[in-house]
């Protein structure tokens, strides 16, 4: 008996017991589907975040009091670090040979008002000259903030398209004044819409000069610095130059740790991949349990099948079928059963991932390694858990099998 004949007999047995076969496949289907769906979602998310972070500037890094804090212990170690000040930014200007731009920045949330209209949850930020290059912002109408705006602490602002549309429907917002906090600010520019990121609008903001922001907050405040290196290759040199100057300003001795943080896009990407790696491990764990249950069910069903078909096995052996033929038949049947569940799980997982990507702001991309993993796991489950029932069937004595009722 060749493999084709064994496969035909196996498929015939599966078709003859449709309901039992479907119930048997559920564990395999759920396990494979969860792996495909989650890994496709994670794959799409990784690509999306990588693209966004790299587009944000692979040669841009950020300086703030804390850096990347990923645990409570890490926060406790840096919570008393001194603030980054505008004076720190001024000290760096022109002193970093491997940087082209140093932009001071700070932010808060508040409400933007114009007459009887208001927009809540607005990102209100103070930015130094050059912020438009750092953030890759394009002006739709008007102009960006200038160095003169900052030096003279002018009460002017640039707003996102969403603010312009909600406060000034059908109007040109330029040169109108909106209220941010207790002050009125003249709108001098509207930025081209950037859309949503992870479901959050990127166009619900108002930007004012950084030194004007000090008055807005009524305090010296806590600032950060965005620094653009000459190119990606210059990043380590630019970071070291910044570190040397800030350590000198803070009178840190050799051997003392930095009391400020430097963050790059690669740092953020590493943290994100660590998080999605955790999701991957949990998913594999859940899927493994489901597949184990599915495998045990397949083994039990195949044992029942061997018992039900004992007389059939005896007839086949009496007609010349060898142990190897019976073993192959039942192994192929178990593997076919498991692969069928895997195929349904793959199709369901891909469909679920694409549906989630279509209905949510988060992207999904079919993970072909996960599809390959699904096929391999399905085949492996069938062979492993089908081996014992196949061995039992192959060892049946033909005379005893023919007597079986």
From TrEMBL:
State the Pfam families in the record: FtsX, MacB_PCD
Q: Can you provide one Gene Ontology molecular function annotated for this UniProt record?
A: transmembrane transporter activity
GO CC annotations, alphabetized = plasma membrane
Membrane topology category: Multi-pass membrane protein
Q: Establish whether keyword Signal is in the entry.
A: no
Cellular localization per UniProt: Cell membrane
- Residues crossing the lipid bilayer are 21-42, 279-306, 326-359, 365-385
Going by the UniProt record, its keywords in alphabetical order are:
Cell membrane, Membrane, Transmembrane, Transmembrane helix
Q: Give the chief site where it resides.
A: membrane
Q: Where is the MacB-like periplasmic core domain?
A: 21-244
> Which domain of life does this protein belong to?
Bacteria
UniProt domain ABC3 transporter permease C-terminal: residue ranges: 286-398
Q: Per its UniProt record, what InterPro entries does this chain match?
A: ABC3_permease_C, MacB_PCD, Macrolide_Exporter_MacB
The record, for PANTHER family, names:
ABC TRANSPORTER PERMEASE YTRF, MEMBRANE COMPONENT OF TRANSPORTER-RELATED
Q: Which family does it belong to?
A: Belongs to the ABC-4 integral membrane protein family.
Q: What is this protein called?
A: ABC transporter permease
Organism per entry: Eiseniibacteriota bacterium
């Amino acid at each position: 008996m060749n493999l084709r004949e064994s496969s035909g007999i196996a498929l015939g047995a599966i078709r003859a017991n449709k309901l039992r076969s479907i119930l048997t496949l559920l564990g395999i289907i759920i396990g494979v589907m969860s792996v495909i769906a989650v890994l496709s979602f994670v794959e799409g998310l990784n690509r999306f975040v990588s693209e966004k972070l790299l587009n944000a500037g692979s040669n841009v890094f950020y300086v703030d009091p804390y850096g990347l804090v990923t645990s409570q212990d890490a926060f406790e170690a840096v919570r008393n670090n001194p603030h980054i000040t505008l004076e720190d930014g001024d000290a760096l200007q022109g002193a970093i040979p491997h940087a082209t731009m140093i932009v001071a920045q700070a932010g808060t949330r508040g409400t933007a008002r114009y007459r009887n209209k208001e927009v809540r949850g607005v990102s209100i930020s103070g930015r130094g000259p050059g912020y438009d290059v750092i953030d890759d912002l394009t002006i739709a109408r008007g102009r960006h903030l200038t160095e003169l705006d900052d030096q003279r602490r002018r009460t002017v602002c640039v707003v996102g398209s969403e603010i312009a549309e909600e406060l000034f429907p059908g109007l040109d917002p330029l040169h109108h004044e909106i209220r941010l906090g207790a002050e009125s600010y003249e709108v001098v520019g509207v930025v081209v819409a950037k859309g949503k990121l992870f479901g959050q609008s990127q166009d619900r903001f108002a930007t004012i000069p950084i030194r004007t922001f000090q008055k807005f907050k009524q305090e010296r405040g806590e600032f950060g610095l965005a620094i653009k290196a000459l190119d990606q290759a210059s990043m380590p040199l630019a970071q070291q130059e910044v570190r040397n100057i800030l350590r000198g300003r803070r009178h840190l001795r050799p051997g003392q740790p930095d009391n400020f943080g430097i963050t790059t896009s690669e740092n953020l990407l590493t943290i994100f991949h660590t998080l999605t790696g955790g999701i991957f491990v949990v998913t594999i764990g859940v899927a493994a349990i489901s597949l184990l249950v599915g495998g045990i069910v397949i083994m039990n069903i195949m044992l029942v099948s061997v018992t039900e078909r004992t007389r059939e096995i005896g007839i086949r052996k009496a007609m010349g079928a060898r142990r190897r033929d019976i073993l192959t038949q039942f192994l192929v049947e178990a593997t076919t059963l498991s692969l069928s569940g895997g195929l349904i799980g793959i199709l369901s997982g891909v469909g679920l991932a694409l549906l989630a990507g279509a209905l949510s702001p988060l992207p999904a991309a079919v993970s072909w390694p996960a599809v390959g993993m699904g096929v391999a796991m399905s085949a492996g489950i069938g062979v492993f858990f089908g081996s014992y029932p196949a061995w039992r069937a192959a060892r049946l004595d033909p005379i005893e099998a023919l007597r079986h009722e």
